[in-house]
Amino acid sequence: MFTLPKSLDEPVISLLATLNDGRKFPVINFGTYQITGRSTILKVIDAALKAGYRGIDTAAVYRNEADIGHALKELLPKYNLRREDIYITSKLAPSDHGSEERVTKAVHSSLQNLDISYLDLYLIHWPAAQGISPADPSNSTIRSKTWETLSKLHDNGNGVLKSIGVSNYTAEHIKQLLETSSVIPAVNQVEFHPHWQQTEELHSICEEHKILLQAYSSLGGTSNKSLLKDPVVERIAKKTGLSPAQVLLRWALQRNYAIVPKSVTPERIENNADLNEALSDEEMSELNNIGLKKKYAWNPDVVR
């Protein structure tokens, strides 16, 4: 968990959270979902590093790991950065759940694609295994086996996975994990925005175990603009001089969520990192009380 300080002497883009395993992790990571093509990846990673991002979020299912690895190889010297200055996150595909051999192969495939010797964070992308009904109770057993293998590859931070976590896990999924393992996830990456503020149960269990919550779809998803055009968001944006995107991202930070904004536009990439202007208690309350309960991504509640 992290708590956003009331006042900062440094840009928020430079802020690091301390994970429950003791490792540091950027509060703002650059998201790469649906960003593909070597030239496009090179352009956006260049813009992200220039804007101060030091965390890059990818996944096996994004099919862009190799291009990200190529871009970092070319761009790190440009910004006088070393591998250890960058935090790279990837995720296990649902098709790779289960056996130790399959999970290990998937991890090493990501390492090879990214052309790196370790991952700073590796997440189980989805709580269900591909090819099995979400309602099938065997998903719980499969998740447990997957987590056991990741724990070995983590090896208390001495392995190829420096931190491990989960994504799209409900409170129930986390409870099940904790019943079978002493290794606590460092991060749970979930959909979170004013239209879908997660459950008190999830917040409670993550706070209890110091699991960092990381928000994806902070702006409502790729094709859905209803969140950006929400009257409350637009009113606060006009009042503060911030963009609607900046309002939503700053709101998430003040709710003590890490964020993973993404864009292919250099100007927006920069603006999404410029989040030092605080929202007032009144503005936070307005956003907190929008009252909708609407998901724009996937629904992990259906997974047993």
TrEMBL record:
Keyword terms, alphabetized: NADP, Oxidoreductase
Site, as annotated: Lowers pKa of active site Tyr: K91
Residue ranges annotated for the NADP-dependent oxidoreductase domain, each copy included: 28-290
One annotated GO molecular function: oxidoreductase activity, acting on the CH-OH group of donors, NAD or NADP as acceptor
Amino-acid biosynthesis in keyword set: no
Protein name (database record): NADP-dependent oxidoreductase domain-containing protein
Active site (UniProt): Y62
Protein family according to the UniProt entry: Belongs to the aldo/keto reductase family.
Positions annotated to bind substrate: H125
Protein's UniProt keywords contain NADP: yes
InterPro entries the record matches: AKR, NAD(P)_OxRdtase_dom_sf, NADP_OxRdtase_dom
